[in-house]
Amino acid sequence: MALFCQTPSLSRRAVLMNGGALYAAAFVPKIAAAADGRDPRLVVIILRGALDGLAAVGPFGDPDYASLHGELALSPVGEHPGFSLDGFFVLNPAMPNFARLYTSGQAAVVHACATGYRERSHFDGQDVLESGYPGPGRVDSGWLNRAIAVLPRGERIGLHGGLGVGASMPLVMRGPAPVLGWASQSLPTASDDLASRVLDLYVHLDPTLARALREGLETDKMADREGVTGDLAKPRGGMDQPAGMRQAAMGAAKLIAAADGPRLAAMAFDGWDTHANEGGAVGQLALRLSGLDGAFEALESGLGSRWKDSVVVAITEFGRTAKINGTIGTDHGTATVAFLAGGAVKGGRVIADWPGLKPAQLFEGRDLMPTHDLRAVLKGLLADQFGLSNAVLSDWIFPDSAAIAPLRGLIA
Amino acid sequence: MGLGADPKLAMVALNRFGLGARPGDLAAAAGDPRGYVKSEAAMAAIAELQSPDLLATKANLQLLFAEQEERRRQREMAPPPAATGAAPAVAPMMAQAPRLNGDSTSMIGAPPSPANPAAAGAMANPTLGPDGKPKPPAPSIEQKTYRAEILERLKKQVAVPAGFIERLVGFWSNHFAVSVTKGQFVRMAAGSFEREAIRPHVLGSFSAMLKAVEQHPAMLFYLDNQQSMGPDSQAGRNRSKGLNENLAREILELHTLGVGSGYSQADVTNLARIITGWTFAGREGRLGEPGTFAFFANAHEPGSQTLLNRTYAQPGVQQGEAELADLARHPATATHISSKLVRHFVADDPPAEIVARLAKVFRDTDGDLQATSLALVDQDAAWTAPLSKIRTPYEFLIASARAQGRAPEDAGPVLGALNALGMGLWQPPGPNGFVDSVAAWASPEGMKVRLDIAAQMAQRMKDLGNPLSMLDTVAGAASSDETRQAIARAESRQQALALLFMSPEFQRR
User: Fold this and answer.
1) Over 80: is that where the pLDDT of A250 sits?
2) Any CB–CB contact under 8 A between A204 and chain B?
3) Would you call A164 helix, strand, or coil by DSSP?
4) How many Cβ atoms are within 10 Å of B225's Cβ, its own excluded?
5) In terms of domains, do B337 and B449 share one?
6) B340, B369, B384: which is the final residue of a domain?
7) Taking chain A, what is the end-to-end CA distance rounded to the nearest angstrom?
8) CA distance A145 to chain B (A)
9) Across the 509 residues of chain B, what is the mean pLDDT of every consecutive 10-residue run?
């Protein structure tokens, strides 16, 4: 019936699909021909709210750090000593698993990095981070989804494209490529018969809803098969709580470890907007970091033998002020950290072109100056992990980023 | 009117502009669908929500302060814990520290264990009465208040004729979002915030709503302004404390001008200075009656401030009030609000001509929200645009209650369903509120859970009636042959009702 808008997003999707197909034909990724036996996974964790990179990985070797970051500053010594990473940087003590992975060469930190966004709105910042476009305003698809769209179908990438964890699909995973959604849930499941009848109705009346429901049902089946049921399926906590983060990671690990499961997954953790009483080595930020740390561990154990070919990257929309504010927190800033973990990561290092923290070295006199473009990191990961070409990375996945060369050698 | 006598327009009236049809509503709207929607605005007290079970913010907060004080006293009487460390330093901040351990009563965080049947158990096991379960611990004061607020809201929203004004309430509550996950304080005051700062103004002045919101304890607490102090104020210097930009930034970015409208980082910082001292009176009432807005002059940054090239030299609280009045009147605010309204009611990509019309009315009437909202209803294009939006989870649940003509008697199942669908009431992921787009709600996981919930609702319905008459109730002549057939061929009444709840006629608006 005419009143129902049948295909507004479908037609847009069709256009994008064609674009993706063209790219796929033009730049056949190396992986299609690779015979090295690798079966890589990539998990992207979006930290929503702007993580204070200076309280997650503190530059204790910088002479201005302790005074600027005040009681939020980390130190390798004292009452709550962090993990010294290289004599200059110290990791928040709430992250023992990441420290262990770092020591065993399976985790790395990129510091003083940022997207190309230089304002301080969370929401625009997240859109830029997740869409992969140079500026805000594009929310039709995310860079991870567009990456999937150009990867060859088949057993390597799985039949199901990507996986989005959580009640709503993160923007980074929305777009032309098929995706599955999964969230911990304790509702009784509707019968298969009802599901197929509703699906049939949608196929006739509403293709957009049909596509969404079909994908939701497929994930559910896979979750059942992979044992993501019972206790594992019960909600343990919000995505701003350690239990919730850990559980999301565990569920995602099971699904992407499956032989026919998706190879790429995205999830979003909340609660990083620490304007007041942020806490440094202990407190609310440390609590959230312990959740992220638990998620790394859950992914490591859940991926099992797949961990050796996997990369997990945790990124945030921007950093926070270098100087703490009037309420023992930090306001919106610019550069921050990105965490890399996984058996495939060439770890044990902090990748930083340290800008310094003197007033003239700060961005606009207040924020850590970005010296690495986060897109270079992400392009490097996609290039090394999936063999995507520079052209496809610069035009299609991160549009208008030709000037930003992929940071290579992140993968061992 | 120029819309003709299309029988589908009654459904547009109730679905696009309202909260869905109850038995008889489609027929009542059919003669003059536009008039049906607009007439709601003229009804007495239509936007108010009053009940003997609901208290004012100050009374709610005084109860909370008393309980926190009682807990503190009990802690002090208890023997000291064996292990010390960071805990003593952190504990006193708990009451105000945002989400340090989350909110123990937060439903989204509650596993469906017997200890917390309210979370999902009530939804998961509708047949289990309270008798069949181990007795749960008594709910906290803020949880009781939260539930009472929700129940009264649900009742009101089933009782109103079209639901247009209630949709506006929901829109503005989401525009000026606070989240109960911030902790006890916001959970205790979120309902009264909506009743006191939003409802009185949805048919009134934007400027008045803006002032009421930014001076409400729930918003001041949610965005940390009660902690912000002028670095050169008396209190700021004594305690070496200073600014917190959180509320100031969101006022500019979310509440008024909108992101990218030309303000600078300096404007954000200056606005933060201007509203230093905007706080609420605490338990001891040093600044005024506990639980009410207070201007703490000692924390206010002295001197005049510049914002968007204007200088504000007013003394004290008037400085911020003058600034808010100017922001409310700014043309960027008119455009920002108008596009959000059209995006909410009409389409994810709001048609530019409707937005322009609304923005003009907003500007010409100095932010008269009744005139602006009715201007939307007056646009033919707002009636003829395809029903491309999907009901939010909340709208979906309210519409199902209205289709049955019955208000929920308990907030528990609705809360459980809302949390499962990722839309806990007054619990958006951030100060920008819930995303208002089809993609956000028609996600694979979202649709799958909607299906499970539709099946649950159908199972729970006591009086099933004839599913085809319910289709007539909610869609009437606008229902498709496919949906009618699918319902007629269902294997049971329950399955037929679940199909009805999931049908595009019921999901789209």
Assistant:
1) yes
2) yes
3) strand
4) 28
5) no
6) B384
7) 56
8) 14
9) 75 97 95 96 95 96 94 82 43 33 32 37 42 65 95 97 98 98 95 98 98 98 96 92 94 96 95 98 95 97 96 97 98 98 97 98 98 98 96 97 91 90 93 94 92 89 80 93 93 89 97
Distance in angstroms (rounded) separating the CA atoms of residues B372 and B143? 36
Does A207 reside within a domain?
Answer: no
Task: Assess if residue A312 is contained within a domain.
Answer: yes
The pTM of this model reads 0.77
Predicted local distance difference test score (pLDDT) of residue B118: 41
- Domains in chain A, number: 1
- Which residues form the domain of B504? 1-74+104-180+390-509
State whether residue A271 sits within 8 Å of chain B by CB. Answer: yes
Residue A89 banded pLDDT, cuts 50, 70, 90: very high
User: Does B492 fall in a domain?
Assistant: yes
Q: B507 and B440, same structural domain?
A: yes
ipTM: 0.84
CB contact under 8 A, B386 and A5: yes
Given B384, B414, B448, the domain boundary residue is B384
Average pLDDT of A13-35?
A: 36
Domain count along chain B = 2
Instruction: Tell whether B127 is covered by a domain.
Output: yes
Contact between A325 and B268 using a beta-carbon 8 Å cutoff: no
pLDDT in tens, B82-101: 544 443 333 333 333 333 23
What are the tens digits of pLDDT across the range B135-175?
A: 566 789 999 999 999 999 999 999 999 999 999 999 999 99
The full DSSP string for B12-62 is HHHHTSSS-PPTTHHHHHHS-HHHHHHHGGGSTTTT----TT---HHHHHH
Q: What DSSP designation does B86 have?
A: S
Q: Which residue of A has its CA nearest to B113?
A: A234
CATH number of the domain enclosing A134? 3.40.720
Asked whether the beta carbons of residue B109 and residue A237 sit closer than 8 angstroms, the reply is yes
Distance CA B387, CA B369 (A): 24
**CA neighbours closer than 13 Å in the CB half-sphere of residue A116:** 18
- d(CA B193, CA B87) in angstroms, rounded, equals 32
Q: Which residues of A touch B124 (CB under 8 A)?
A: 186-188
pLDDT at residue A225 greater than cutoff 50 = yes
Q: Above 50 in pLDDT, residue A32?
A: no
Q: Is the separation of the CB atoms in A343 and A308 below 8 Å? A: yes
Residue A84, chain B, CB below 8 Å: the answer is no
Q: What pLDDT was estimated at residue B460?
A: 79
Do B361 and B482 fall into the same domain?
no
Residue A205 forms contact with B (CB below 8 Å): yes
| pLDDT tens digits for range A61-83 | 999 999 999 999 999 999 999 99
Query: Which pLDDT score is estimated for B462?
Result: 65
Residue B14 lies in a domain: yes
A103 in B contact zone (CB under 8 Å):
no
The token pair at A230 is: 């019972």
Same domain membership, residue B367 and residue B436: no
CA B57 to chain centre: 16
Residue A1 lies in a domain: no
Query: Between the CA of residue B507 and those of A115, A287, B283, what are the distances in Å?
Result: 37, 39, 46
Domain assignment of residue B86, yes or no: no
- Which A residues in the span 306-335 are in contact with B, Cβ-Cβ below 8 Å? 325-327, 329, 331-332
What is the domain extent for residue A149?
A: 9-184+235-397
**Per-residue confidence (pLDDT) for residue B465, from 0 to 100:** 76
Chain A nearest C-alpha distance from B46 (Å): 30
> Within a domain: residue A114?
yes
Contact: B259, A121; criterion CB under 8 Å: yes
Expressed in angstroms, the distance from the first to the final Cα of chain B is 21
Partner-chain residue, chosen from A190, A217, A325, that has the shortest CB–CB distance to B455: A190
Q: How far is A287 from chain B (nearest CA, A)?
A: 8
